User: Which sequence fits this backbone?
């Protein structure tokens, strides 16, 4: 009884494996047909499915990378070619895989990475002239890329600061940032301090009519003084005349 069960299990397993193997072969054949027709995007889908179904000793990385490269999916192509390079044991095939890695990196504008890939390909296969030509091109493009990056960095740098003298205000002009500060005060008349520059009360501007009043007072005082002088003069004259009369009278009495 146990033998029969074991035989049944083996038969089912074999059938399942045969079914999976057949599915893998069909998927792989379909991927290759689409690749030949130039339908690289669809071929890539089938290659991915076939790669999942493939036996452990089968590597479809190279074919999958070629489909991805031609479909314009350069990042997937680079990964597939790197996988192929790591699994290859044949020197020339390994060199070819590194060459393809370099080509994918060139499309990604990773010129430094492409340069390293081409160098590795030439180490493995020094006679690979295509890899040598691509290496020279990668070096040239890398140099141009570095110069462009350097130029961009220089453009991003702030310009040199201006000479402080360029923004120095002209003589007599205030600093605009100070508002009503020191510069503007230079143009304002200086306010007199206490006791400094203030007019005396005697120098104050007279009010209308005060000049005529003052003049009248002065005239009256002058007239009074003149009258006083005239009275004094008359009194002096009278006294002088009186003294003369007395003298003449005494002389007359004596004569008589």
Assistant:
């Amino acid at each position: 009884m146990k033998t029969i069960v074991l035989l049944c299990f083996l038969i089912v397993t074999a059938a399942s494996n045969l079914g999976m193997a057949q599915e893998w072969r069909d998927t792989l054949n379909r991927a290759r047909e689409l690749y030949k027709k130039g339908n690289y995007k669809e071929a890539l889908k089938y290659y991915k499915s076939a790669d999942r179904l493939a036996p452990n000793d089968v590597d479809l990385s190279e074919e999958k990378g070629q489909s991805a490269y031609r479909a314009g999916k350069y990042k997937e192509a680079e990964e597939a070619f790197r996988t192929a390079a790591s699994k290859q044991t044949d020197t020339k095939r390994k060199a070819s895989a590194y060459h393809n890695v370099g080509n994918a990196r060139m499309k990604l504008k990773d010129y430094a990475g492409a340069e390293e890939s081409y160098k590795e390909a030439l180490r493995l296969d020094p006679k690979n002239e295509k890899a040598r030509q691509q290496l020279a091109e990668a070096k040239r493009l890398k140099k141009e890329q570095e110069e462009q990056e350097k130029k961009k960095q220089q453009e991003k740098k702030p310009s040199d600061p201006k000479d402080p003298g360029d923004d120095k205000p002209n003589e007599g002009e205030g600093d605009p940032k100070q508002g009503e500060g020191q510069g503007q005060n230079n143009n304002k008349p200086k306010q007199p301090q206490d006791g400094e520059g203030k007019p005396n009360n005697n120098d104050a501007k007279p009010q209308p009519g005060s000049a005529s009043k003052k003049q009248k007072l002065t005239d009256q005082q002058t007239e009074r003084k003149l009258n006083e002088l005239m009275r004094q003069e008359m009194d002096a004259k009278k006294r002088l005349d009186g003294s003369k009369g007395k003298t003449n009278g005494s002389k007359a009495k004596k004569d008589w």
Summary: Confidence is low (pLDDT under 50) at residues 7-17, 171-189, 192-212, 246-256. The CA atoms of residues 249 and 255 lie 10 Å apart.
